[in-house]
Amino acid sequence: MEMIDCHKTNWIPRMIAGVEQMGYEVVAGEGYFKIYAGEKTRCCICVIYEGGCLREHIGFGEPGHFIVLGRHIRLEVWGVPEEWISRYEYPLLKRIDDCPGTAGKAYARKVVYVLDDLEDDPDGDISLSVIRTFNCLSHLVLYCVVPRTMIPQLKQAANDHIVFLPDKGSYDSLLAEQVVVIGSGRVAVEGLLAGLPVVVIGRYGFGGLMTADNLVAFCSNQFSGRPGGMLGERIPPMLLAQEIGYILDVMNTGELDDLLAISRDDIKRLKAFCQEDCVKAIVETIREVCAKCGDMNDAGVLTLKPRLSSSIAIERKAPTPEEVFWLRNIHTNKVLSAFGDFEMGLLAQCNGSSTVEEVIAALGDEYDAADCVAFMRSLWELRVLSFKK
């Protein structure tokens, strides 16, 4: 099992270099990079790995596709339909090679809180909640592993029985002692894979003890707190103290072994958070999107199946001498296009079950094939129509 903190490595530049070796042009920005294949106006793929970049202009109007790392980045509010988005978990680990064993382990009565990234606790609220809890547990050996710059401030709020250690990016020596781990993200997964009891707390509040039964739920927010929790949710010190007490009560018993016994299937789920698997999936998506963009630019478009985007609503305009329809994005309420009965007849055939060639044949001689293809291409550029093989 090999694990690294992907937030603190240069894996993004390495991925960019790999994409460039595939022969594509890459334009990098803060928190994202764009990939161009062929003409820039025809195929643009935007890879987003930091949500803050949405405050910048990253080319939402360009035709193409978005690859998003992390569940918290929401593109639909910008009017991007799900069909134009491929989502992947933000990689927390480099590689997972084996499945941990827990049976028969002798756990030490030590509790370790680890915060390895200031971005996960920018105002210190999470760490202070832990300190308030630890201050009430004077009978235990307690450690706080935090960025060095936070130690002086946290010490002011802490009792003397709490030991502070500067974060060095590796916790092998602590994990080897079979301690109780408190943390989120990579720290939580690393503890679980080491066969240790892990209490998940983070930006989404108090998650509690992570077990084989609730592992899938924690995957939904990248082990960042309570599944379904709100960003910035408060962590009650009493709940955290109770959870620590429960773990210590069942420590070194079969009950705890059963709770922590993750399976091979669980390991497969966690591979979604591995850098190697993520990069492979992204590269494959880039190839598929570029191939489809190539089809859109030549006769290959006839073999694709058009479908109305899930983000588009078709509405009739107020009664007029001629029937007029609007295409409205349901997320932004922006009207993207207006057309009449003739175009509506074509659009009604675009249900994802027939190829462009079959759609044109079904419409009959009244519709010109070249005009139909041009019309469908224009709707694709507006993200009104999506195409699949």
**What integer is the average pLDDT?**
84
Quote the CATH topology of the largest domain.
Rossmann fold
According to CATH, what is the class of the largest domain? Alpha Beta
Q: Indicate the overall shape.
A: elongated
Distance between the termini: 38 Å
Q: What is the total number of structural domains? A: 3
Estimated helix fraction: 25-40%
Strand count, sense and closure of the main sheet?
A: 6 strands, mixed
Rounded radius of gyration (Å):
26 Å
Structural class: alpha/beta
Question: Uncertain segments of ≥5 residues (pLDDT<50)?
Answer: 1-9
Q: What's the count of strands?
A: 16
The helix-strand sequence is: HEEEEEEHEHEHEHEEHHHHHEEEEHHHE
CATH architecture of the largest domain: 3-Layer(aba) Sandwich
Portion of residues in beta strands equals 15-25%
* SS field, number of helical segments: 13
* Spatial arrangement of strands, main beta sheet: 8-7-6-9-10-11
